[in-house]
TrEMBL record:
Its main location: cytoplasm. The active site is at E115 (proton acceptor), C366 (s-methylcysteine intermediate). S-adenosyl-L-methionine binds at G190, E191, S224, S247, L248, H249, N323. It is an enzyme of class 2 (transferase). Specifically methylates position 2 of adenine 2503 in 23S rRNA and position 2 of adenine 37 in tRNAs. One of its GO terms (molecular function) is metal ion binding. Transmembrane segments: none annotated. It catalyses: adenosine(37) in tRNA + 2 reduced [2Fe-2S]-[ferredoxin] + 2 S-adenosyl-L-methionine = 2-methyladenosine(37) in tRNA + 5'-deoxyadenosine + L-methionine + 2 oxidized [2Fe-2S]-[ferredoxin] + S-adenosyl-L-homocysteine; adenosine(2503) in 23S rRNA + 2 reduced [2Fe-2S]-[ferredoxin] + 2 S-adenosyl-L-methionine = 2-methyladenosine(2503) in 23S rRNA + 5'-deoxyadenosine + L-methionine + 2 oxidized [2Fe-2S]-[ferredoxin] + S-adenosyl-L-homocysteine. Its cofactor is [4Fe-4S] cluster. HAMAP family: RNA_methyltr_RlmN. InterPro entries: Aldolase_TIM, Elp3/MiaA/NifB-like_rSAM, Methyltransferase_A, RlmN_N, RNA_MTrfase_RlmN, rRNA_lsu_MTrfase_RlmN/Cfr, rSAM, rSAM_sf. It comes from Thermostaphylospora chromogena. Belongs to the radical SAM superfamily. RlmN family. This is Probable dual-specificity RNA methyltransferase RlmN.
Length: 373
């Protein structure tokens, strides 16, 4: 859970610590290929069996030991049990948009609940994944933030959300015929950069060529953050050409301190400076995420302030009509205010789009299904 201490400069230091819990079982997706080979050798098998297991999981999207006929019959079950244990159990699935948007509520081994969303478009298929069970950022308009942090997810638990979606697509379960996952966004439950090691491991499993990983283009991966400045700097050094999305939600510190409490540690200017440094290092355009909340952050003067802060940068502003949660006082902006906000940003020459509001009728905002359960 977040805790505060004071550093030598007298500024509060936010420490993000997940509660200590039993760990999920070791899974092939937690490991690099070299680590998989070592794990297989420890089980008394030839190291190349790890390559075969990896091919079944990442290429054939299978964990069925009986189908792994290239493995010795005597060791199939043991290898699968040791390196392909079940990680996610579906609890509930809801769909809309003719079945092309599917949200799944998963139960983890310890009972924790997380959500993922598959969204199929004519030109791409995107999976939105969770990186933590719950979230410790405490943003008041977010269902997950209000639930608090249960624990960090493992690399394999994150990856399995994408593999499950890939399985459904390959099997033709999603309208549009068999297909593949092309994009992954870390915008589900949790603050991805507060679970840094597991998230980077997941990004590498997703982007590594098969059979090491799923072989998704790094340019199709987006990692979001509310603005953990040191972690943004660390991400810039990873050599991964992925997109950084900064959940800003307010251009001024006074309001952002309320909407995004971590802003009391890293102010708007510090967060944006880290984002510009990321863009300079990776040559990747930064996405500024801004949830439009009626009469809270949707004033034209705030659009002007945001425009002045981000113009002439390698940036794109993604406005998000707030998906309200039951009983919340926060709701989406009026259409006229949304249009005015867009016009003011465009007047500053800032590229801006309004996000497709898929999933509203199926509790699409992260954390809503888990809260209902």
């Amino acid at each position: 859970m977040p805790s505060e201490a004071t550093n030598t400069a007298g500024r509060p230091t936010l420490t993000l610590v997940a509660p200590r819990r039993a760990k999920p079982a070791r899974h092939l997706a937690d490991l690099t290929m070299e680590e998989r080979r070592a794990a297989v050798a420890e089980l008394g098998e030839k190291p190349f069996r790890a390559d075969q297991l990896s091919r079944h999981y990442f290429e054939r999207l299978s964990v069925d030991a009986a189908s792994m006929t290239d493995l010795p019959a005597a060791s199939r079950e043991r290898l699968a049990a040791e390196l392909l244990p079940p990680l996610l159990t579906p609890v509930r699935e809801v769909a809309c948009d003719g079945g092309t948007t599917r949200k799944t509520l998963w139960r983890l081994f310890d009972g924790a609940l997380v959500e993922s969303v598959l969204m199929r478009y004519p030109d791409r298929t995107t999976v939105c994944v969770s990186s933590q069970a719950g979230c410790g950022m405490n943003c008041p308009f977010c269902a997950t933030g209000q639930a608090g942090l249960t624990r960090n997810m493992s690399t394999a638990e994150i990856v399995e959300q994408v593999v499950a979606a890939a399985r459904a697509l390959a099997a033709g379960e999603v309208p549009g015929g068999p297909g593949r996952v092309s994009n992954v966004v870390f915008m589900g439950m949790g603050e991805p950069l507060a679970n840094y090691k597991a998230v980077i491991g997941a990004v590498r499993r997703l982007t590594d060529p098969t059979p090491r990983g799923l072989g998704i283009s790094a340019r199709g991966i987006t990692v979001s953050t509310v603005g953990l400045v040191p972690a943004i700097g660390r991400l810039a050094e990873e050599g991964l050409p992925i997109t950084l999305a900064v959940s800003l939600h307010a251009p001024d510190d006074e309001l952002r301190d309320t909407l995004v409490p971590v802003n009391t540690r890293w102010k708007v200017a510090e967060v944006l400076d880290a984002a510009w440094a990321y863009a300079a290092k990776t040559k990747r355009r930064v996405s500024i995420e801004y949830a439009l909340i009626r009469d809270v952050n949707d004033q034209e003067w705030r659009a002007d302030l945001l425009g002045r802060l981000v113009r002439n940068r390698l940036v794109h502003v993604n406005l998000i009509p707030l998906n309200p949660t039951p009983g919340s006082k926060w709701t989406a902006s009026r259409p006229r205010d949304e249009r005015a906000f867009v016009r003011r940003l465009e007047a500053h020459g800032v590229p801006v789009t309004v996000r497709d509001t898929r999933g509203r009728e199926i509790d699409g905002a992260c954390g809503q299904l888990a809260a209902a359960e």
